[in-house]
Amino acid sequence: MGGSSLVVLVVLKYLGRRYPNKEWIRATGPLFVSSLSILVTYLGDLSDKGLPIVGTIPRGFPSCTAKPWFPLTHFGDLIGPALGIAVVGFMESIAVAKQLASRHKYDLDSSTELIGLGMANLAGAIFQSYPVTGSLSRSAVNDDAGAKSRVSGIVTATLVGLVLLFLTSVFFYMPLSVLAAIVISGVSALFDYGEAIYLWSVHKFDFFVWCAAFLGTMFLGVEIGLAIAVVLSLGIVLFESAYPHTAVLGRLLGTSTYRSVQQYPDVTERYDGIVIVRVDAPLFFANAQHVREKMWEYVDKEEERFHPQQQRGAGGATGLNVDASSTEREHEEKIDDFEDNQDPLVPVQGRRRCRSDITTQPSFSDATNSSDCERKIQFIILDLSPVARIDTTALHILSDMNDSFIARDVTMCLSNPTKIVMQRLIASGLDKDIGRGNIF
């Protein structure tokens, strides 16, 4: 009985979609299957042959129970289960609401939905109702029947009221398997397997969270499945907050724009002795230590890269091997030959400048002996443009970093801090420790 009803519902649904002018076939499918199954069960006396049916449905409305609400003698015993029911009910409601909103391309206000659920539960509690939520199964059946507006809910509630008052005996022979077929037919349309494929192709960790929530809900219950999803989601948020993305910046060739040298390795250049680091997250107690470790890592890597080049002389910065005993004219000829053959878009490893190149061209003696081209970090610049806020823990760590850099004869600079960040720097006095001239 259940399988036959499910087949009929699927066929009627297909015909309604295949022929738009006969959309009414799809909408009347559940009513047709219900009426036919009741008639067959009654005429064939199938209930006596073991077919489970709905049976007797109490007639009339439940009695009002608002009078004994106060005093709340069992408040302490009820508050825990009530909160659990409220959270699970809201999450179930908002999940199906978002699914339907996405399918039919309309906006959804979660706050309004929560207010609506609260008012519905308050009104229903007066008459001994179950906790009111946006039912997954009934919403799916309603949408599958072709409902377009909230009027469908009013019509459904009115018909349910009439059935409770006058037609409860009609549904006595309703097979439970047919009710299950109607629910399965409606809910199957909400199973969005395409979202699982999308998550797998875009972000596999999100896919594993989706699978954990799905399997937990299916085998362990809604509460545990929801708890698994919430815990995993919070874990992802905490992990991404504690380990934000950082990047070393270089100047795009021919511009004054700075971008990640890892993202644009072939069109960026960096200056010897200067490391520019960008932090792509707010700075607070959870990630400040990680940011400090990353900055020291970038500084150490830069200095390690310099040491072998320093042994080869100043020419290592551009890939030229210059003998200190050669004449100035020979050196200039080598530079000219190198520049003529140099590709304008070379990797960052081969596109470096000494700090002195920023303002003036060095002489031969400068190129070989001047300390301006020594392979030593002189400036560490922290780009704060993505940092929307900063807390006191991060300020303390920035202060410690500044002291450590000063001890190594390195100047720390801050670039483009937001208004809120700058106010915190001034309030803490860190702007004076770093130097106003080093904040720009």
What would you say this structure looks like, in words?
The chain has 440 residues and is α/β, with parallel strands linked by helices. Helix content is 56%, strand content 7%. It has 17 helices and 7 strands. It has helices at 2-18, 23-27, 29-44, 75-104, 110-125, 136-144, 151-166, 176-187, 193-202, 204-220, 222-242, 288-312, 328-341, 364-369, 392-407, 419-428, 430-434; strands spanning 246-252, 258-260, 268-271, 274-279, 352-353, 379-383, 411-415. Strands 1, 2, 3, 4, 5, 6 and 7 form a 7-stranded mixed sheet that branches. Helix 1 runs parallel beside helix 8, helix 4 (75-104) packs parallel to helix 6 (136-144) and helix 10 (204-220) packs antiparallel against helix 11 (222-242). The model is unreliable at 309-352 and 354-373 (pLDDT under 50).
